[in-house]
User: What shape does this take?
Amino acid sequence: LLVAPDTGDAFKIVYLSPPVAGFRAGVSWAPRFQRNQRDPDPRDRTILRDAIEIGANFQQPVGDWVLGVSTGYVTARAAPETGRQGLNAWNIGLDARTGPLRIGGSFVDRGDSNRRAPGFNQREINAGIAWVTPKWGVSGSVSRATASSERNRVIAAGGYYAINRNIQLRADLARFVQRETGRTPRRGIVGLVELALFFWARCPERPQFGRNGHRPPVAPLHYGLCCGRRPHCRSSDGVDRIGRGPRGVSRRPDADLRPPPG
Assistant: This one.
């Protein structure tokens, strides 16, 4: 799935607002972000300056459902020696959940971000649905990406099964169709199987309640997971960390800003 670019772990100044009635926002400024800086060809480097990233999300319970909306925007100037475009991208996402059911969708507009030539206009719309439990979960998603010379469509399904509290088996299967102007369409199926290991330690910020109302003593150190398999716990940012995310599909922890071809 396409995601808006970001500056990853670059040095930055960040402000996060306190949560107010389900709303929270944040803004950051990074003076410099770079990747592949040792590449002998400057056109294969990513060097960005004065990157500004803004994000906001809102969650509210409505009956038996919890509804959420989130949005983000990023802008940055590219160093002239790279011959690339700067960052100018935004996205918006919606999600709804009740019990083990998760439904969501998003729209991403990357424009010409980090491209060598202007006019690429890369965009994607996607939607997914998942059934998530502490022991197992399944999901399905569909996405359609467009650009000036490309059209891509992906249909995917995935799932996971917790063998025990330390080991989780995951699998994904995706069918894609890629069309480029002047070329024969390419079609294929991609499968992925992975084994996730969870290592447990004392949680620095323990949630208030665990199973049966008791405070859990430990949490797994895995992408900020908190409370492990306890279905009623949340991490310190108030986001559920059970299973594979709000839509039940795999997500990269951050965008890969290695220079794309072209």
Remarks:
- The first strand starts at residue 13 and ends at 16.
- The chain is about 0% helix and 55% strand.
- The two ends are 20 Å apart (CA to CA).
- Residues 206-262 have pLDDT under 50 and may be disordered.
